[in-house]
Design goal:
alpha+beta, seven-stranded antiparallel beta sheet, Umud Fragment, subunit A, LexA/Signal_pep-like_sf, 2 helices, 11 strands
């Protein structure tokens, strides 16, 4: 083999290696894009806040990020995304778990299982719509009692009753623009 043939062979091998490298990079990029797509559309979600019912924790225009998959379920104080009967998405806070006995007074103060719940960062006042549930209210199995932080304007379990587990679409993990929530857990 002379020098020209060797050069041609080396160039052909180099071209093959380069094509393999490019193919590997395309595969890696596709895998990364798939994982990002999976995270954004299947595991996580993004939602813009439209109303005032979660003030002071969350304001209109804030963006919330939430987990669609709830490995640990939800607990007291967790901010969640709910889908109501009309198909509207709501951001509310879990106030009662299955079996809890709930009472909410006219100004929005919460009593759970006979004990007054001390809540901070909640706006209390007379509800603009009035309650439609009778107290004491026992949260049904597989259901949750939810309240907004701005009690006078919030449409929540006081009017709608408890939400079934299937109505909870995610748990808020971070709120952008709010600066008022613990960014990690959505809890106060």
């Amino acid at each position: 083999m002379n020098g020209g043939e060797q050069y041609s062979l080396d160039m052909a091998l180099l071209k093959i290696r380069e094509e393999k490298r490019k193919r590997k990079m395309r595969t890696e990029r596709a895998a990364i894009l798939f994982v990002v797509w999976l995270m954004v559309f299947r595991v996580c979600g993004i939602m813009r806040v439209d109303g005032n019912s979660m003030r002071p924790a969350c304001h209109p225009g804030d963006i919330v990020f939430f987990l669609r998959i709830l490995p640990d379920g939800v607990g007291y104080g967790d901010a969640v995304i709910l889908k109501d009967a009309s198909g509207e998405y709501l951001i509310k806070r879990i106030a009662g778990l299955p079996g809890d006995v709930m009472e909410v007074d006219r100004e929005g103060h919460l009593t759970r299982n006979g004990a007054k719940v001390q809540e901070t960062d909640v706006i209390f006042g007379l509800s603009e719509t009035g309650d439609s549930v009778d107290y004491p209210y026992t949260v049904p199995e597989e259901s949750y009692f939810f309240l907004g932080d701005n009690r006078p304007v919030s449409l929540d379990s006081r009017m709608l009753g408890a939400a079934g587990r299937e109505e909870i679409k995610g748990k808020v993990i971070w709120a952008a623009g709010a600066g008022r929530w613990n960014k990690k857990t959505g809890k106060r």
